[in-house]
Structure formats: C-alpha cells, structure tokens
Write a structure and sequence with these properties.
about 525 residues; alpha/beta; Beta-Lactamase; Rossmann fold; 3 domains; seven-stranded antiparallel beta sheet; globular
C-alpha cells in the first residue's frame, strides 16, 4: 500500500530525510518549470516574428499579439504555409523546404541583447590622440556604472567588424527603444535593440572616443576613432544628428582592404580595364569616377593608384578621410577645423612637383577648377564626384560654375560605377524563371540555364549573397564630344535624359553579363540598376 501512495505524491513531495513523512507542496515544480519555459519561448518567438520575412509588415502587430499566447505554434504554421506555397511553385518537397527553413533559422539566430560576457582583449577603441575609451571616461579606470555601457559599445563595433559591415547605424525607434543596424554588402539589417538609457550611453561613448561634444545632441557633428584588435587595426568615421525621439549616430567603417585592390579584381571587363590602364599611363588629363554614396568609387580609385609606379612618379592625394595608408605616396587629410580644405591643399600640392594628383571628392567650384587646370598643365588627376551617371556628372560640374572650355580641355575619361552582391558559392542554385523571361532571353541569344538565384545558408547568414563586385559604364571624351561641350552645344535636359538612359543601359548590360556568368542574380541586378 505504501509504494503506490509514494508514487502518487512523488511529483509534489519533498523527502527531507529517510524515514520522514513526505511534505506536500502547494504547486507542481515540473509544471512551474514548463510554464517558465513556455513564457520564454513565447517572448523569444515574438522577436522572431518581428524580423521574419514570412509575416507582412502591416500584420506584424497582430502577429505579435497572437504569438504572445501561441508561442512557436504560429511561426510553425507560417513556415508550413510558406513551404506549401513554395512547393507548389517549384515542385520541390514540402519536408525539404521545411528542413531548409529550420537550418536557416538556426544559422541566423542572434541574441536579443548585445550585453554578454566580453573578452577585453578582443577590441579596444582609441581617439585620434591615442587615448582609450575607458581612459576618457575614468582616467584609466572606468566607473562601475559606465563599465557595461562601454563594453556594449565595444561589442557593437567588434560584431560589425566580424560581420564585415560597412556602416553601423544607432538610432531611436521611439521614446523607449534604440535600434542597432549593420549595412552588410550594401543592405541594412537589424541586429539588436536596447532601452533608451542604454542607447544614450552607447551614443555618448562613441561620441566621446570620436572627440565630439557629448553635451550637444541637436546639431550635426563629425568625428573619427580607431579600433585595435589582436591582429589588425580599423578606422571609423562618425556622424551624429538630432532626430525625432533623440539622437542618431552613423559610423562608417573604413576598410583597410581598400589598399589591396587592383584593376583586375574590381569587376572591370577586359575592354574597360584596357581603357582605364591607358588613361592612367598618360602624363596629363583627368579621370573622373562617378556614382552615388557607397558605390565603390574610392575602392576603384585606390585600385588605379596601385597600378602606378610610385618610385618613378610623384603621387600626392587629398582625402577626407584617408581610408588606407599607401607606401611611397604623400597623403593629405582634409580638416576643415584646421582650415585644411580640398582647394587649399590642391594649391599647395601644385608647388610640390606632382606627377599624379588624387582628389578624394570634388565638392565645389574652386576644387573642380584647380583640379581641371592641373590636368591641363602636365598632371594626371584622378578624382571622384557624387552623381548618378556620367552625363549627370557633366551637368553637376557645369552647375558648379566650371566653364565649358575648361571642362572640355581637362576631362579625358569618365566612369560611373555600382556594386552588385555576389551569390554565395555554397548555396546558389538554378533560377526559377517565368516563361516570358525565358522567351526574352532566347530572343537575345542568352543561355538562361546558366542563370542562378540566391538560396541562403549558414555561410552567408541566410542572405544568399557573400561579397560584392563592381559594374561600370566607361565614357571616353573624344574630340567630337569635347567640341560640343566647349561650344556649349549640349542641352542640359537632353544630356540628362540621353545620358541617364545610356548610362543605365550600359550598367545593365555589364550587370547582365555578371548574371549570365553565375556571379550574381537577376533580382540583385534589378535592385541596384532598376
């Protein structure tokens, strides 16, 4: 009789010692543990639903409420429905698609908070004078209250470098939440959230190490800092601005890999590379790189510089900021606070017997005029300008006040550029094309069977892409075009319309070659070029 009774009360009994009576508890410990686990799963899957591509943006709020009560059940239903739809479209097995979803979910799991145990030897942040972030805050010993926030700031920077991000954005989502996003391969992704107090602390930490005024939260500010790790050093450019709900900080990661690129590995075709190589061997003239922010202009500029023999030619650069140190090259960094501008630096450079002058960016009439005059007087000038196409770059130079005669006589070659993400070599697969797309490719004589599409795996963090390559539109200014510019015969509206059409067409053709070669996808080409 005693054994069944013991078994009956075992889940809710404690046995303090042998021979003593069992003491009944008012609750079941196993059920309590299961309840805690269920609540945790519900909260975790709310986060998964929030960033899931399976849930439409306008249904996120409803999905969050349902997930709060159903936990993983809703997400499982969404995965099954998505798998059925994909199976009907592609004739693949449902279970195979569900297994693929599960693999991608495991591969892309990220903690909801950055605050975790961090090895202090991983990364250290320093300002321009070499002081560490903890020294800035506490004269060598950070205060106990500041320590977690400083560790979090360092962790955010370290994670960005680990994921090869080009930008870090920290901005307020509302009154109580700050979001952290990384731009990886040109695409933004959310990586975490933190409360407003922690967000303010992280932003102040980054501003302090960037030599910015932490008391000023409304006016825009600029700064810079460096990070040292066990085997490398990275530089960062910081910009802050007051926005709704608080302050936003944008951190640009200045890649040290920029200085290792050559013209052979930036994405140029053989014909395009021959044009560029011929232009940079000339003793004079201007080669102008065009494109929007983040299109890889500076990387291509460094690739051109790496083709020049620094021992036989005196090369001087003016940059804002210096992204990579080149051996045997005189590099000048723009600093408006010290009254060192592009125009003033260019004037001083012309008295230093340069053979090649590199201008990081043409921003005003004075810089454009000095650079173009230098290209007329026996100097090779390499420069960049923010514009959509080669034609709009001509319009912008004319709009800055550069005379048509100076523009036609100084400018030799123009190149506009975009960056396409490369397909992950581990998970790319044949593209699923519609019948109309197949017919179009057949009419153009293109083998559509070689076209691939992104899938997503652990190696590419579920994106389907890893790394980027450039596509280009090269325009050589021949005698006829130079005469038209000099005589002011080009209509601005016609130039903008025709140039935009021609530029996008050339970029699309170059990008289509990348698609047919299996390097990128049609979706990526449409995203970048349109």
């Amino acid at each position: 009789m005693q054994i069944p009774v013991f078994i009956e009360y075992f889940p809710t009994a404690l046995l303090p010692s042998a021979g003593s009576l069992a003491v009944s508890l008012p609750f079941n410990p196993i059920k309590l543990v299961l309840l805690i686990v269920w609540v945790y799963l519900c909260l975790y899957f709310i986060q998964r639903v929030q960033f899931s591509a399976l849930v439409p943006q306008n249904r996120k709020s409803i999905a969050n409420v349902v997930t709060l009560f159903t936990g993983p059940i809703l997400l499982l239903v969404l995965v099954i429905v998505d798998a059925i739809n994909k199976s009907l479209e592609s004739e693949r097995g449902i279970f195979g698609i569900i297994a693929e979803h599960l693999r991608n979910a495991v591969a892309t799991i990220r903690p909801s908070s950055f605050i975790r145990v961090k090895d202090d030897s991983k990364i250290k942040l320093f300002d321009s004078s070499g002081r560490g972030i903890k020294e800035i805050y506490g004269h060598g010993k950070s205060h106990g209250a500041d320590q977690p926030v400083l560790d979090l700031a360092e962790q955010i920077i370290f994670d960005a470098l680990e994921q090869q991000a080009s930008d870090i954005l920290i901005d307020p989502k509302d009154d109580s939440i700050y979001t952290v996003r990384y731009r990886v391969d040109g695409v933004l992704k959310a990586v975490g959230e933190m409360d407003a107090e922690t967000g303010h602390g992280v932003i102040n930490s980054i501003k302090a190490v960037s030599s910015m005024d932490i008391s000023e939260r409304r006016r825009p500010q600029d700064g810079a800092f460096t990070a040292r790790m066990a085997d490398s050093t990275a530089s960062f450019r910081v910009a802050s601005a007051g926005v709704l709900y608080g302050e936003k900080v944008s951190v640009r990661v200045l890649s040290q890999m920029v200085g290792t690129f050559r013209l052979s590995n930036v994405g140029l075709t053989e014909k395009q590379r021959a044009v560029i190589e011929k232009a940079i061997t000339r003793p004079s003239g201007m080669l102008l790189m065009c494109g929007p922010t983040g299109s890889g202009k500076t990387t291509t500029l460094y690739a051109m510089l790496n083709e020049i023999d620094f021992f036989t030619r005196n090369v001087i650069t003016v940059e804002d900021p210096i992204e990579c140190v080149l051996p045997n090259v005189s590099q000048i960094e723009v600093n408006p606070k010290a009254d060192i501008t592009f125009a003033k630096s260019l004037r001083s450079i012309l008295r230093q017997d340069p053979d090649v002058i590199c201008v990081g960016e043409i921003r005003d009439e004075e810089t454009a005029g000095i650079a173009l005059r230098a290209s007329q007087t026996g100097h090779l000038v390499l420069a960049t300008i923010h514009s959509d196409t080669n034609a709009t770059a001509l319009i912008r130079l004319l709009d800055l006040g550069v005379s048509p005669l100076l523009l036609s006589s100084g400018l030799s070659v123009m190149a506009s550029q975009r960056l396409l993400r490369r397909l992950c070599s581990n998970c790319k697969r044949p593209a699923e094309l519609s019948p109309s797309q197949m017919r179009d490719f057949v009419k153009k004589g293109i083998n559509y069977k070689c076209i691939l599409q992104a899938e997503g795996c652990k190696q590419c963090d579920g994106t389907g892409y890893r790394g980027r390559t450039g596509i280009f539109d090269i325009m050589v200014l021949d005698a006829k075009l130079k005469a038209s510019i000099a005589n002011n015969e080009l209509s601005v509206s016609a130039l903008r319309e025709e140039g935009s059409k021609r530029g996008k067409s050339s970029l699309f053709k170059h990008g289509l070659k990348m698609v047919v070669s299996g390097m990128t996808s049609l979706e990526e080409l449409k995203r970048v070029v349109g």
